[in-house]
Amino acid sequence: MRIAYYNHTSSVSGAEINLLVTAAHYKRAEVTIMAPEGDLLERAREAGLLVVALPSYNARLSRNPLRLAAGILGMIRAGKQLSDAVMAGGAEVIHANSLRAGMMASLFYWRHRIPVVWHLHDNPPKGLVGKLIRMYAAKAAQAFIAISEPVMKGFGSSSGTVHLIHNGAVLSPFSELEKKRYRIDLRRQLDTPAGGRVMVIIGQIAPWKRQEDAIRALHSLIQQGEENYLWIVGEPKFREENLHYLKELQRLADELNVTRHIRFTGFRNDVDQLCCAADLLLLCSENEPFGRVIIEAMAQGTPVIATSGGGVGEIIEHGKSGLLYETGNIPQLVDHIRSLQSNDRLRKQISVNCVERVGGYFSIEQAAAKTEHVYAQLVRESAERNNRLEQTKGVAK
Ligand code: UDP
Asked: Measured from the CA of 290, which atom of ligand 1 is nearest?
């Protein structure tokens, strides 16, 4: 099966990492990544995947009528360019890796006649825009893949072709010895005491990721006499407000006098190793659609404390394979951190259970196989459609 994987941006976050990791695990699908030149394509080339560079395009739609019109025109142009590329490459399925990518890929379906599967990674926009997008999607897409139940429900299963496929993680490729090595080396690199307690929070720096809650929890622990360190891993992406948020976080750390205990690492390419080097992972997001980083940490046996909203509850069974707390509830978060740090048995049990949980439900092999199943179904349906069309033409002659 020849699959054109279309990503409308070259910036790399969870959706793009999922794309790269899954594409590397297909057994039958031959993937070509189509995206603007940049980080994603560089990583894809490094991974030995086929790539096609498309002209870049600003995908943000505005309320300003002139900018909106320019945005729509840009989208039509991008859709046409994609359509040329998929036809030239002989793709049998287009895998559109976001809502916007789906909209552009489906725009020229009448021309390329290649089935399009929209991969839904985020909660859909609210209000009239969201409603219009859902109506268009129900008519335009041949199938959907949703990364969690809330994302699937938020989108409304207006058509019967929504597949729930959680992200998959690669189970720990590291030996115990290697893990110990990362612990020593990375702590040294990040100027953190070898025996100190380390919490890590990983993801784009953005207000909805609520890294501020991790800083407040750290402050509270230190006030209670519990020495701890916090690594804030990631960078602000996509929006100006995210850059401001990073400054706010640094200000907050200053105000609370915890700067000495925090390391802002920026974007890192060694997330798996960082998870091994830390004692636990925090995820403080408001309504996280899935949280790929959770399964990455769990795959290393690193216990996770996460907010209970969004898709997180599908991954973590509270008290068994991790701990959940209510978004923004700092005392509850601090309680959970303290109980993990003070209770060896609980920590070890969760560490074993979370690896099992990822192996059982969130392995990359399962995610890749389910996605290939969707492709096969789309190829079959498309062939049937084309046959029917040929027959109708035959009868008409
Ligand atoms: N990530 C990374 N380096 C960083 C921060 C994040 O490689 O400095 C990766 C992380 O390992 C995960 C992805 O980015 O694979 C983030 O995905 P997630 O679903 O957790 O969050 P998103 O940013 O997509 O909302």
From this structure: 19
